[in-house]
Amino acid sequence: MRTFIALAWLILPGLSAVAAAEPSTRIAWTPQTLNLVKSGDPARGQTKAASCQGCHGAEPANAATPFPYLNGQLATYLYRQLQDYKAGGRPHPIMTGIAAALSDQDMADIAQWYSQQAPVQMPEGRGDVPRLVVDGDSKRLIAPCGICHGGHGQGEPVDTPRLSGQKASYLKETLLAYKSGQRHNDIYRRMRIMAERLSPEEIDVLGNYYGGLR
Ligand code: HEC
Ligand code: HEC
User: Fold this and answer.
1) Are 39 and 76 part of one and the same domain?
2) What is the whole-number distance in angstroms between the Cα of residue 94 and the centre of ligand 1?
3) pTM score, two decimals?
4) I want to staple 107 with a disulfide (CB 3.0 to 4.6 A). Which of 43, 44, 82, 187 is the partner?
5) Pocket of ligand 2 (CB under 6 A)
6) Which residues line ligand 1 (CB under 6 A)?
7) Are 111 and 151 found together in one domain?
C-alpha cells in the first residue's frame, strides 16, 4: 500500500505540472540559491526581524493572533515564502508589501535567524495521531502527511515546512486556503491536490494534532 501511494505521488505531480498555466513559484533550488540561504547571517537577521516580531514573535501575547510562528521553521522554506510574497505567487494584503521591501540577502539573514530559534512549545500537548498522518488514504490518493513533513512534523529539506508547534488556527486556515485554491504557490500543486480531498472536519483534526506537537 505504501509503495502504491509513493508511486502515485511520483506520477501525479508530473501531470499537474503540465496542466498548470503559471509557475507556482519563481524560486528554483539552484546551488547558488541554496548557498545564499545557507550563508544568511543570523545576527543581522535578528536585527532585521525586529519589525516582524510584533506579529510573528513567540510571545504569549501572540498566541491568539492569526499570525504564524516562524521559530524553528526551515530557512529554505521561509526564504521561498518571502520570495513568493514579493513576486506575487502567494499574494497577501499584509505580507506582500512587507516582503517587497526585503532584498534577497535580507530574506536569507532573517530566514537563518528564525530557523535557529527553538520551535514554540504548545501547552495543550500531543493528541492521538490521526490516521491520515501515518497511513494517508489510498482511496482518495492522499499521501501520509508524515512522509513529506517528517514523522514528528519537523519538516524536511529542501522546503517542506515544519508543522509541529505551529498554531492550530493558522494550520487550519492555510489548509482551507489550499483547498479553495486561494493559496497556490505549492510546487506541483502537491498541497492543493491533497487539501481539496480533505473534509473541514479532517482539517480540524490535523490542525489540532500538529498544533499540539512539539
Ligand atoms: C502586521 C503583522 C505582520 C507583520 C509585521 C509581519 N507579518 Fe509575516 N505574516 C503575517 C500574516 C497575517 C501571515 C499569514 C499570511 C498568509 O496566510 O499567507 C504571515 C506570514 C508570513 C510568512 C509565511 C509563514 C508560513 O508558515 O508559511 C513568513 C515567512 C513571514 N510572514 C515573514 C515575515 C517577516 C520576515 C516579517 C518582517 C520583515 C513579517 N513577516 C512581518 C503578518 C505579519
Ligand atoms: C508530497 C509531499 C507532501 C505531503 C504528503 C503533504 N505535504 Fe504539506 N506541504 C508540502 C510542501 C512541499 C509544502 C510547502 C508548499 C508551499 O510552498 O506552499 C507543504 C505545506 C503544508 C502546509 C503549510 C505550512 C505553512 O507553514 O504554511 C500545511 C499546513 C501542510 N502542508 C499540511 C499537510 C498535511 C496536514 C498533510 C497530510 C494530509 C500534508 N501536508 C501532506 C508537502 C507535502
Assistant:
1) yes
2) 7
3) 0.92
4) 82
5) 9, 68, 132, 142-143, 145, 147-149, 160-161, 163, 166, 171, 174-175, 185-186, 190-191, 194, 206
6) 49, 51-52, 54-56, 66-68, 70, 78, 81-82, 90, 92, 94-95, 98, 110, 161, 174
7) no
Q: Which amino acid is at 85?
A: Y
Same domain for 169 and 101, yes or no, is no
Same domain, 127 and 148: yes
Per-residue pLDDT of the chain (214 residues; tens, 9 = 90+): 444 444 444 444 444 444 445 677 888 899 999 999 999 999 999 999 999 999 999 998 898 899 999 999 999 999 999 999 999 999 999 999 999 999 999 999 999 999 999 998 765 556 689 999 999 999 999 999 999 999 999 999 999 999 999 999 999 999 999 999 999 999 999 999 999 999 999 999 999 999 987 5
Looking up cell 521561509 gives 78
Measured CA to CA, the distance from residue 107 to residue 82 in angstroms comes to 7
Tell whether 180 and 160 lie within a shared domain. Answer: yes
Pick the residue whose CA is nearest to atom 15 on ligand 2: 186
**Cα separation of 77 and 82, whole Å?**
9
- Residue 1 carries which side chain, given as an amino acid letter? M
d(CA 192, CA 139): 17
We report the CATH number of the domain holding residue 169 as 1.10.760.10
Give the range of the structural domain holding residue 200, as residue numbers without chain letter: 2-15+121-212
Residue 201 shares a structural domain with residue 140:
yes
Asked whether residue 25 is assigned to any structural domain, the reply reads no
